[in-house]
Design goal:
Number of helices of chain B: 9
Radius of gyration of chain A: 26 Å
Radius of gyration of chain B: 18 Å
Oligomer: heterodimer
Number of domains of chain B: 2
Structural class of chain A: alpha+beta
CATH superfamily of the largest domain in chain A: Succinyl-CoA synthetase domains
Distance between the termini of chain A: 38 Å
CATH class of the largest domain in chain A: Alpha Beta
Structural class of chain B: alpha/beta
CATH superfamily of the largest domain in chain B: Succinyl-CoA synthetase domains
Helix content of chain A: 25-40%
Largest sheet of chain A: 6 strands, antiparallel
CATH topology of the largest domain in chain B: Rossmann fold
Strand content of chain B: 15-25%
Shape of chain B: globular
CATH class of the largest domain in chain B: Alpha Beta
Mean pLDDT of chain A: 94
Low-confidence stretches of chain B: none
Mean pLDDT of chain B: 95
CATH architecture of the largest domain in chain A: 3-Layer(aba) Sandwich
Helix content of chain B: 25-40%
Low-confidence stretches of chain A: none
Distance between the termini of chain B: 19 Å
Number of helices of chain A: 13
Number of strands of chain B: 14
């Protein structure tokens, strides 16, 4: 779960990482009032979860209330790479001597935490990694050991930060690691981490992604509520379904994440394009199929629906009964093609047989079902 | 032969008194797995359908000689359950539970490696492991797997996905091909057992003649497997990578299945495997057909 910058800064502040005072606002008047309180000059920053805000005109400096009003009214409602700006973050402008980069993330390959620190901040780290990889000092931290102050100190030296920044940087890195681990973040990134003319080190931006699996030990309701979701994803979220919205015309339901991904693959290979990813999970509950089918059928993109089921412990006849019961309760506009295989597939197919018609077809294999679904979608 | 589990594996279930633990312990037992006990600190001394319940893993091991455990504890308790199992002295920990925080996984992976280097962890978020006809631990439907046939050309399977694994077992059975062991390593970011661990074990297993590998988008485990295959594997391999058309930046059901920053794409994984001499199918059916070709050419 990705946080907006203003949420990331709140998250950092909870772990004593120095951030600028500021306020998240949804209206122009609110932005101006907040700026008056913070004190000029202020920065007006678009809150969207996509890079390149500055280039798109989503970050502006305002020296007075009139400028703040102008920038806030331009930025609120602005479209940045398909994301509409609904919130602006107003903060006191900082004097900057130098810009650095710092982050922690999990290195899945090393199975350790990876810390990256660079004296070249303020630009995308991916660009630095390509153009000047030596400018990034990396350390791998064993989660059992954690990050000690001494290791942080050596790391700062290796990154060749301005010596004036050493104490502040060591302090922030230890706190950032603490926030990353105890806050259950997948990513905690500060870019830029700045050194001010008064030799203070300070987080000027916050990019935080949280591990949804750790929600049980945190209060993340507010973050959950503000996630960017389209209508379909919002419905699926409320129905507790594993769903990802896509742009094609074939709706997909499969049992198992791997099989669902694989279903997207075969639909593409058959010349079609999936409208979604949906893992309905194990079991054969009619209610789950009703929810899944309703969300998919409400999607105006969808022209056909491909249900791809492989019976394991859940037997084919149980799944077939679940689907038949679901179809008895809802009236769908799109035609369905079902592939049912695995445990007791024959029994399951026999249950579906009497219900087959032009809007409910069955195909013997996954590839054949994909072809039928694609051809139905193009009619 | 088989890898990691066989007819001598004696299993306990942490969380046997919960609905999932009870259900799958029962199915595994009915399959013929030596299910010797379970744990629940509050219900020690009772039994679940005749399977004795102990206070903790150490007590269960002491009383039953168990050498493996299967964890059905809810995600918040998994970190403690894994360490309890390792301290209890089992050789193999199979963690079926999904939704375990990544920081917990990274922590206990390193803790085990440091303090319990001889304990193997499989999962979390994995379907388990089956050596057909000998031992089935986890949630795989045992009857869809055909046991390895002595003297015939048998296959090993290693997979990050549950349902696709079942499909692979099913298709091999339909073709009359036996399976020595099928390992579901799970779809999380820090799996306890990697593709490479399984490939190395299959390479050393005399009864396994070929390996089927099922990967997914996200991370670089398949690329690392390809490197290993290039230098260390003599046995032929077929593979399929799910998520060839998955969009970047979206988690596809499994916590580890995400293309981020242009890394972890199916295309890069398929290319790496092809370059290592693996026969790569465009979909699971094709990978199955490639395995049939491999087996008939051996």
């Amino acid at each position: 779960m990705d946080l907006f910058e203003y949420q990331g800064k709140q998250f950092f502040a909870n772990y004593d990482i120095p951030v600028s005072a500021g306020s998240a606002e949804t209206t122009v008047d609110g932005a101006v009032t907040a700026a008056d309180k913070v004190g000029y000059p202020v920065v007006v920053k678009a809150q969207v979860q996509v890079g390149g805000r500055g280039k798109a005109g989503g970050i502006k400096l305002a020296n007075n209330a009139d400028e703040c009003r102008e920038h806030a009214s331009n930025i609120l409602g602005m479209d940045i790479k398909g994301h509409t700006v609904e919130v602006v973050w107003i903060e006191r402008a900082s004097d900057i001597s130098e810009e650095y980069y710092a982050s922690f993330t999990l290195d899945r390959s090393a199975k350790k935490h990876l810390g990256m620190l660079s004296a070249e901040g303020g630009v995308e780290i991916e660009v630095v990694a390509v153009e000047n990889p030596d400018a990034i000092a990396k350390i791998w931290i064993d989660p059992v050991d954690g990050l000690t102050e001494q290791v942080a100190r050596d790391w700062v030296a290796a990154a060749k930060l301005n010596p004036l920044a050493t104490e502040g940087a060591v302090d922030i890195l230890v706190k950032l690691y603490n926030a990353y681990v105890n806050g259950d973040a997948d990513l905690a990134e500060i870019n830029p981490l700045i050194l001010t003319p008064t030799n203070k080190v300070h987080a000027l931006d916050a990019k935080v992604s949280l591990d949804n699996n750790a929600g049980f030990r945190h209060e993340w309701d507010e973050y959950e509520a503000t996630q960017e979701r389209d209508d379909r994803e919002q419905q699926a979220f409320e129905a507790d379904l594993q769903y990802v919205g896509l742009e094609g015309s074939v709706g997909i339901i499969a049992n198992g994440a791997g099989l669902a991904m694989s279903t997207l693959d075969v639909v593409n290979q058959a010349g079609g394009s999936p409208a979604n990813f949906l893992d309905v999970g194990g079991g054969a509950d009619a209610k789950k199929f009703i929810k899944a089918l309703t969300i998919i059928d409400n999607d105006p993109r969808v022209r056909s629906i491909f249900i791809n089921i492989f019976g394991g412990i859940t037997r084919g006849e149980e799944v077939a009964n679940g689907i038949v019961a679901a179809l008895g309760e809802i009236d769908l506009k799109s035609p369905i093609v079902i592939r049912l295989d695995g445990t007791n597939a024959d029994e399951g197919r026999a249950i579906l047989e009497p219900h087959l018609n032009e809007k409910l077809q069955m195909a013997p294999t996954m590839l054949e079902a994909a072809r039928v679904a694609v051809s139905l979608a193009s009619n | 032969m088989a890898i990691f589990v066989d007819e001598n594996t004696r299993v306990i279930y942490q969380g046997i008194t919960g609905s999932q633990g009870k259900y799958y312990a029962g199915l595994n037992k009915a399959y013929g797995t030596k299910v010797v006990g379970g744990t629940n600190p509050k219900k020690a001394g009772t039994d679940v359908d005749g399977v004795p319940v102990f206070a903790n893993v150490a007590a269960a091991v002491e009383a039953t000689g168990a050498n493996a455990t299967c964890i059905f504890i809810p995600a918040p308790g998994v970190r403690d359950a894994v360490i309890e199992a390792a301290e209890g002295g089992v050789d193999l920990i199979v963690c079926v539970t999904e939704g375990v925080p990544a920081h917990d996984e990274a922590w206990f992976f390193n803790k085990l490696q440091r303090d319990f280097p001889n304990t193997r962890l499989l999962g979390p978020n994995c379907p388990g492991i089956i050596s057909p006809g000998k031992c089935n631990i986890g949630i795989t439907a045992g009857h869809i797997a055909k046991a390895a046939v002595p003297g015939a050309k048998n296959v090993g399977i290693v997979s990050r996905s549950g349902t696709l694994t079942y499909q692979a077992l099913y298709e091999l059975k339909a073709q009359g091909i036996g399976v020595t062991t099928c390992v579901g390593i799970g779809g999380d970011p820090v799996p306890g057992t990697s593709f490479i661990d399984c490939l190395a074990a299959f390479e050393a297993d005399v009864e396994t003649h070929a390996v089927m590998l099922i990967g997914e988008i996200g991370g670089s485990a398949e690329e690392e497997a390809a490197e290993f295959i290039k230098t260390e594997m003599t046995k032929p391999i077929s593979a399929y990578i799910a998520g060839q058309t998955a969009p970047a930046g979206k988690k596809m059901g499994h916590a580890g299945a995400i293309v981020s920053g242009g890394k972890g794409t199916a295309a890069a994984k398929m290319e790496a495997l092809l370059a290592a001499g693996v026969k790569v199918g465009a979909n699971p059916t094709e990978a199955g057909e490639l395995m049939v070709e491999i087996v008939s050419s051996l």
